[in-house]
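Have a close read of this protein, sequence plus C-alpha cells, and explain what the C-alpha cells say about the fold. Thanks in advance:
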Amino acid sequence: MATPRLGEIAPDFEATTTEGPIRFHDWKDASWAVLFSHPADFTPVCTTELGRVAALEDEWAKRDVKVLAVSVDPIEQHEEWKGDIEEVSGATVGYPIIADDSRQVSELYDMIHPGEGDTSGVRSVFVIDPANKVRLSLTYPKSVGRNFDEILRAVDALQLTDRGPFSTPADWREGQKVIVAPTVSTADARERFGADAVEEVKPYLRFTSAPA
C-alpha cells in the first residue's frame, strides 16, 4: 500500500454506502471532496466526529464540498449506528458512509493502522479537488479526534490560492490578508493590486488583501 501523494489523481473506486452504491469520481462530479476514515462504528471518538461533520452540512455546501466517510464495518452496522450519531449530535447524517468490509478503499488510500495488530483504519483525511487531484492529506492516531474547523480552513485556503498568485500565512482565516507569491515582484504586485494594497515586511514577504 502507498498513500496517495499530493498532486496525484485520487484513486477511483466503487463502493456500497448508506446512500446507495457509488463510483467515487462520478459521485463527486467535479466538486471538491473530503474523504475521511474512522476506525470503527459504535466508538466514542468516531461518534463525535461523524456528528460534527453532519452539523457542518451548510459549511460543506457553501464551499461545494462533498463529504464521504469510510470504515471497515458492514452497511447494516453503519445504518444502526447512524441513529446514535444523530441523537448525540442533533444533526442528520445526510452524507454517505462507505461499508468497506472488503478493505478495498482502506487499502487504496493506505488507511489501515500499521503495527496495531488489527485491520481497522486510522483517522485519515484526503481533500480532493474538482480535477480529482489530492490537495491535502492528514493522518491522526485513533485516540485523537480531528478538528474539522481546521479542515474547512484548509479548504478555504486551497480554494483561495487557486485563484491567484497567493499563499496563506500561519493561522490564516477567511477575510485575513494573504501573502503575495514569491514569483511576483513587489513592483508587479503593487501595479496589480494597488500601491497602497501591498505591505512589504521583507522583500520575500509581502501581504495584500484577499480577492473578493
About this structure: The helical segments are 24-28, 44-55, 57-62, 75-89, 104-108, 148-161, 186-193. The first helix runs from residue 24 to 28.
